[in-house]
């Protein structure tokens, strides 16, 4: 699936793109406003979709002066599954957070990064995950490996996409930060945190040899 285009999981048509826009906010939209969001669609194509959805009662159509406006009918029996589809990305992240919450103190930080975080996923995109394991934690390495394997399986089960997991220990993270590993910059700036805090990660990435401010005696 494409987390940035959740409706393509059930329909590849323009209908899904239009519903995604209407479900994004409880406001009315004009055809031109929808077209500015769905830049690949024509105004006429959007109009036909809205006419069809209005006939189904899923979309409410009003006219203000000479302007036609449209909004999702939140009382429609189909509104709940439509809203659920529009929230697939946040639902996916919440499921990962709940799963990783059971890992305990051994997991220092985790984030989704790459195209899944930046909204540029293709259908065949991997979902990239970044994990930091506590260096000083007295834990079974085999148990950790099993957890990582299960995490990869869960990602695929939830989305259909392969999970690509990048692991660091805390010590390895500091070494990589000191050598300017580009991936860490991507995670810090664009990653979606699903365990730990971004503040903790940024603290680890801060140069350790930063000069202390000089004071006068």
UniProtKB/TrEMBL annotation:
Coiled coil spans: none
Pfam families assigned: NTP_transf_2 (PF01909)
Entry-linked Gene3D superfamilies: Beta Polymerase, domain 2
Stretches assigned to the Polymerase nucleotidyl transferase domain: 110-138
CDD domains per UniProt: NT_KNTase_like (cd05403)
GO molecular function annotations of the record: nucleotidyltransferase activity
Superkingdom, taxonomy of origin: Bacteria
Protein name: Polymerase nucleotidyl transferase domain-containing protein
Organism of this sequence: Mycolicibacterium obuense
